[in-house]
Specification:
37% of the residues lie in helices and 19% in strands. The chain contains 39 helices and 40 strands. Strands 14-13-10-11-12-15-16 form a seven-stranded antiparallel β-sheet, sandwiched between helices. Strands 33-32-29-30-31-34-35 form a seven-stranded antiparallel β-sheet. The longest helix has 19 residues, at 454-472. It is globular, with a radius of gyration of 29 Å.
Length: 1106
Amino acid sequence: MPKRNDIKKILLIGSGPIVIGQACEFDYSGTQACKALREEGYKVVLVNSNPATIMTDPEIADATYIEPLTAEIIELIIKKERPDALLPTMGGQTALNLAVELAEKGVLEKYSIELIGAKLPAIKKAEDRELFKEAMEKIGLEVPKSSNVGSVKDGLDAVEHIGFPVILRPSFTLGGTGGGIAYNMEEYTELLDKGLKLSPVHQVLVEESAIGWKEYELEVMRDTKDNVVIICSIENFDPMGIHTGDSITVAPAQTLTDKEYQRMRDAAIAIIREIGVDTGGSNIQFALNPVDGRMVVIEMNPRVSRSSALASKATGFPIAKIAAKLAVGLTLDEIPNDITKETPASFEPAIDYVVTKIPRFAFEKFSQADTTLTTQMKSVGEVMSIGRTFKESLQKAMRSLEIGSHGFEELNISPAELKAKLQIPNAERLWYVAQALRNGMSVEDIYKITWIDPWFLNNIKQIIDFEKKIQDSRFKIQEKNNFRTSELPSFRALLQSAKEYGFSDRRIAELTGQTETEIRRLRNELGLRPVYKMVDTCAAEFAAYTPYMYSTYEEPFYKGIGDWGLGISKTNPQPLTPNPYTESEANPTNRKKVIILGSGPNRIGQGIEFDYCCVHAVFALKELGYETIMVNCNPETVSTDYDTADRLYFEPLTIEDVLNIIEVEKPEGVVVQFGGQTPLKLAVPLEKEGVKILGTSPDSIDRAEDRKRFKELLHKLNLKQADSDTAMSPEEAAAVAKKIGYPVMVRPSYVLGGRAMEIVYDESSLLDYMKRAVKASPEHPVLIDKYLDGAVEVDVDAISDGVDVMVGGVMEHIEEAGIHSGDSACSLPPYSLKKSIVDEIKEQTKALARDLNVIGLMNIQFAVKGDDIYIIEVNPRASRTIPYVSKATGVPLAKLAAKVMLGKTLKELGFTKEREIKHVAVKEAVFPFDRFSGVDIILGPEMKSTGEVMGIDEDFGMAYAKAQLSSSNRIPTSGKIVISVRDEDKAGICDVVRQLHNMGFDVIATRGTAEHLKNKGIEVEVINKVNEGRPHIVDLIKNREVNFVINTVSDAQAQRDSFSIRSSALQYKVPYTTTVSGAKAVVNAIEMLLKKDMGIKSIQEYHKKG
């Protein structure tokens, strides 16, 4: 049927900030949906609070609102924009929950808005655990024995008839939030209480455990004509009991028999029909008992899911794009396949390769966190790789993770410890399995401990067995110049097999005692190079028009004369030299071209902001007429969409894999400036191989990144830096710190996200730090700075063409210096700095850019103390603030920088005057503390946030209030505020308390803080600290008598003593701040909230000139 003409304008809700369980795969989905709907002629209104996304670029939707994702704010947008329909299936659980809330509050009915993509009954039936169970029973499908409970009492009754262990799944939550496995009553009551609080409808499904069963997912689509297609089957490497987002997954499913697959396929089709999803995609999860074949349905997501992005990239079938078109009435047979150009979307994808996804974790950032993997998701990102076999795909994925591994490295671990590690699911389980096999443990024994299917274990065993063959060839490689001619073919065959198994040059080098460069040279001499195959959705049955590539090593076939290529003919009875031939589908063009290296897996310190910059680089270079080639391994992102760049290589970002692509494509240059530290680390190695690095030279980057060279640069320009020195050893560090004076800030060179940065207060802590943290960057010096207590930190983003320098934005941090810039809230323009200070900061920025000969983007961090300006660090590359600054000012900095890197001047591009804005934009960080019980929320120099939001309004107070609301830290306008601050902050808190009293708040303080306030003539109620007796501060929080918490700490002991205050605030969802500067901003926001209601304006309106 044709698309609907009764709909003209569609509202699309985004997923908000990047959090664990809901990451940038929804930016990819939302961007695709916006493009698809506009392609069909519809007006699109988008609301999302995340400035770091491509989705919130002003060009993607007709009207873009970067506003808090609450029902109240969305109603304001609806009232203003009057859309005809709401598409809730592209923004993860956040969008789905908001759509349900808007429907139930009568907002959609009031404004005559239709839900498209998924109707309310379908959402309810899939998301409400009891309704879903009834629906499955109706169509004869089994679900695990379960009970839906709404109270602790109901839960205690339910567990009696289900029995332990049980799985708890709160309704309407994302990433398994609040879920878990309980093996006893104590664990059960704790998880149940937490789950009931976290479920927006206060419901928890208590479910029979299927731990140890095999888990599968099917991505399914259905249209209004009842056409149903299975896009992809996905198998979890890990057994049931680990959240699918934390599991290693493989597509297509590897261990299902055809009979089992057909049964699952039939079940999926029956489920999507019964639930009633008839205009879009769904993800359905199954569990299969390996003992008796019993199959149960675990759950269904009636929306585009996290796995949808993976399935889209794995098959080349754009699920979100097709789902958006189905939502407006088109059917699968009417929508053409972009890749083949001749098959419709009703053709089920077929793939002739294996895809492996491995999650990326950030436990190193949260040392107190429980690293056990359970039904609640804990990973912060993922990588995907493609190979002809599982072995090749797996090893490519392992080296894509960027965790210092290039294969199955040996572990030094005792047998007892190894067995314990195998029993408890963890992020390093692959390496423990390999070590167990290396130690002689049988596949059967490992299976009994881990429940990982023997098929996967046998594949890993084959890799480990092959390692021995590589090690045995060591002497041949070392004596390669003395090879006998007869040995050469057998050695080449060994190396060929190793590459087919997915072994990296680096791992082969480790096994043979060589360097990676030597192995690469040997491989090239032997003519062993990868070929590139296309992802074409149809297993090569039809021609593919979209160059979406992956590498593999193929057995060559031989072209010759006469006797089937054996090199024998009547005229030449002697065999000729065989001519090995492998077929590559890369087919590079002769156009002028540029390779852009992506940012790899999302992790804390390097997130979606860098993917945004890479995508903008692609857009800009296309405008200049270049063929753009993207290299990345992250399936969640817009950069790895097949229609973003002209050519896409889904490959690991290692020197080996990148050089292989460069050899095939022969680009004019490579862009390393936009993808964060991942491509930057490749800049020098690539340059050594003769590759042209576009933009700022690797030497200039090194001058800024290497702390010793950087210090020399500042001295030359007569710019200030806090007293500092460098050290390579613990002894040197102790001497430096003694000279400078404690406290000191210690940080290694070449790290991202403040990795291994700390504030150290004494010598024993410093020596402990040096032993631990030098591991983060062993070959570079550690910088030791005097810690600038109480200074204001400032971030500057600038762009330079080598002659002119333009400042894109000056951002004042709200938290004081010492808290990682990625974790601090900041304001653009600055909200408290004097104009003379801001002007001087701009001049220093320009001087540094010119001396470093920056071509492209640069970020500088300053600390301001009084009238003194200190430089903290310079990054001559794209920073994580680029998307935020671009959205706040309307200047596409990454696009301009990409053009500058290809030789355009700022004058030619028309960027000769700094953009002054009349509004204020506040960026706030979002943290994953609720995922890691036992982790403290206190901020420091090491980055811990997973994402960010932006509040934008006419004044600082309201913009800050919006940013807090967007980060689920809603600022109260009445009630009780509890204060407990360190001695150094007591002077600064007095004005805050006076203002709170004037605005009608009750203020309660701990004894020391209350005494200081009393001495200043401010009376407050006194409350005990936790160790001073009952009732204490935590009792107040648990009794829900507190509306806001202000808590700052000084030393480690004070931090431990007050930990329960902060953990209770987190658990009971009481908004908080852990800095006095944050408290001052909160007071500013409360003043504005009491004066006026929140308003809304699209960023297109903010950026209107005139």
